[in-house]
């Protein structure tokens, strides 16, 4: 398969490989360590390099780096290789400085992210030590992201996305070793360190096989500086998006032990469809928009929106309707008890309410990035951060940790409204033309999801096992789409 559909499927398959192993990793974490103050400590510490990973790797950097690298590779391979090589050097220097600073002041930095534990010196000490171990992961994953963009431009999507599977394998191995020897959570931190190192080696190996050679040209340094200047506003934008999740964890630190872990486990299940489809579609869209002229922009963006409605809408409904049983099957065993299941499922329902809007926002952000407008998404992200904080504070007392998840979904909904309005005003895309052309598609998809929801509830009340419900529902949904003369390939072609 060629073009957009082939790229999405190759990307999705790579993400799927990684996500399956990620699921196994989280299942093992829940079984061995449960949802406790120590898991709260690990998840907060691990979230810190992941925050900067979004800044230096997958989010902000790619928005400016991909279009520039793409144009240089078109001119000559040597220019592209030289630009990429210099980016690796300069980015590594910046990140090493970050790692040193965060390692020296790890205890103080941890307190910024979990202030509710200020009186619990033991938990803060554990989180501080874990942070020192996992911070080098930021360097490994950031360099991997540069080469992943190179592979994307070479038409390889499976390899970059599947590379995360190696991180998950390393963490699973570390959990197994922890279970055998001492159930020490530090094993998990070392799994992150070595997993990131292995992931980098994997990406470098295939980049070289796709023709990359380290080259150094002083002229490309100018383009490197231009890239970092372009990503400055985008860094704030992506950083604000990440802060939306971190704000929740900070507030959850004031709730009973395990609240941070509930949000983490729920968010991991939420991220499965989001990462598998939404992030994949957004990444492919940015790459395709960077390579094609304005004539194809409408087609590419329309494909992205239709894909999200076709895939993400039923995923959202499924997670909401079956959250309790899904959490029970995935996590409830050993140290993870029924109370943990209920609390995690409640958070998952709230996150899932915003899945469609998170997904649309991902694609809308890429529209601005494709024309090197990184300032507009930053402004929108700032508004959403403020709204998320306000909603979180309002909902924290009545809904506890579930209120934090609901606040994120409400902020995402507001973001979608703002994006649609600005994209229309700037004439970057015509939603009027979209609905004029695809209104029947959207209506048929919505009706299909309504019928699917009734089918799910019917099976659920009949006492059918949740795994069988999921299988039968997928078949039912595909059949309904066929009846309405809609199929995935036709929409995505």
TrEMBL record:
Signal peptide: none annotated. One of its GO terms (cellular component) is plasma membrane. The keyword Ion transport does not apply. The chain crosses the membrane at residues 27-48, 54-71, 83-106, 126-151, 158-179, 185-206, 227-248, 268-287, 308-331, 351-368, 380-396, 402-420, 441-460, 466-484. Pathway: Cell wall biogenesis; peptidoglycan biosynthesis. One of its GO terms (biological process) is lipid translocation. It holds the Pfam family MurJ. The keyword Cell inner membrane applies. It is a multi-pass membrane protein. It is found in: Cell inner membrane; Cell membrane. Its main location: membrane. Keywords: Cell inner membrane, Cell membrane, Cell shape, Cell wall biogenesis/degradation, Membrane, Peptidoglycan synthesis, Transmembrane, Transmembrane helix, Transport. InterPro entries: Lipid_II_flippase_MurJ/MviN (IPR051050), MurJ (IPR004268). NCBIfam families: murJ_mviN. Involved in peptidoglycan biosynthesis. Transports lipid-linked peptidoglycan precursors from the inner to the outer leaflet of the cytoplasmic membrane. Belongs to the MurJ/MviN family. This is Probable lipid II flippase MurJ.
């Amino acid at each position: 398969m060629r073009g957009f559909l082939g790229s999405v499927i190759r990307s999705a398959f790579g993400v799927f490989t990684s996500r399956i192993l990620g699921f196994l990793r989280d299942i093992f974490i829940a079984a061995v360590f449960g949802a406790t103050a120590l898991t709260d400590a690990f998840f907060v510490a691990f979230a810190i390099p992941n925050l900067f990973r979004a800044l230096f790797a997958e989010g902000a950097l790619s928005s400016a780096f991909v279009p520039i690298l793409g144009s240089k590779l078109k001119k000559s391979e040597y220019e592209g290789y030289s630009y990429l090589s210099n980016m690796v050097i300069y980015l590594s220097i910046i990140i090493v400085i970050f790692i040193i600073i965060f390692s020296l002041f790890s205890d103080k930095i941890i307190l910024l992210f979990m202030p509710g534990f200020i009186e619990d010196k033991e938990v803060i000490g554990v989180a501080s030590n874990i942070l020192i171990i996992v911070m080098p992961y930021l360097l490994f994953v950031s360099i991997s992201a540069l080469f992943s963009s190179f592979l994307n431009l070479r038409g390889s999507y499976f390899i970059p996305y599947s590379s995360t599977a190696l991180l998950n394998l390393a963490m699973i191995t570390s959990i197994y070793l922890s279970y055998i020897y001492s159930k020490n959570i530090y094993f998990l931190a070392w799994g992150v360190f070595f997993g990131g190192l292995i992931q980098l080696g994997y990406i470098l190996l295939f980049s070289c096989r796709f023709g990359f050679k380290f080259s150094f040209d002083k002229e490309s340094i100018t383009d490197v500086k231009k890239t970092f200047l372009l990503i400055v506003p985008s860094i704030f934008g992506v950083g604000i998006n990440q802060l939306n999740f971190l704000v929740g964890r900070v507030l959850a630190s004031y709730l009973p032990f395990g609240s941070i872990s509930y949000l983490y486990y729920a968010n991991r299940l939420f991220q499965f469809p989001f990462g598998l489809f939404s992030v994949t579609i957004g990444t492919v869209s940015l790459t395709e928009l960077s390579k094609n002229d304005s004539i194809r922009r409408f087609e590419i963006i329309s494909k992205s929106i239709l894909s999200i409605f076709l895939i993400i809408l039923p995923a959202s409904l499924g997670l909401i309707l079956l959250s309790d049983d899904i959490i029970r099957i995935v996590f409830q065993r050993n140290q993870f008890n029924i109370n943990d299941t209920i609390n995690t499922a409640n958070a998952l329902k709230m996150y899932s309410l915003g899945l469609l809007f998170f997904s649309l926002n991902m694609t809308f952000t890429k529209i601005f990035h494709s024309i090197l407008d990184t300032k507009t998404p930053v402004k929108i992200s700032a508004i959403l951060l403020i709204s998320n904080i306000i909603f979180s504070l309002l909902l924290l007392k009545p809904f506890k940790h579930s209120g934090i998840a609901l606040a994120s979904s409400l902020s995402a909904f507001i973001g979608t409204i703002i994006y649609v309005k600005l994209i229309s005003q700037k004439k970057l895309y015509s939603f009027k033309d979209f609905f004029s052309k695809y209104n029947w598609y959207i209506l048929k998809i919505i009706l299909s999801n309504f019928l699917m929801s009734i089918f799910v509830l019917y099976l659920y009340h009949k006492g059918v096992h949740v795994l069988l419900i999921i299988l039968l529902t997928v078949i039912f949904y595909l059949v309904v789409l066929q009846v309405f003369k809609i199929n995935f390939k036709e929409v995505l072609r």
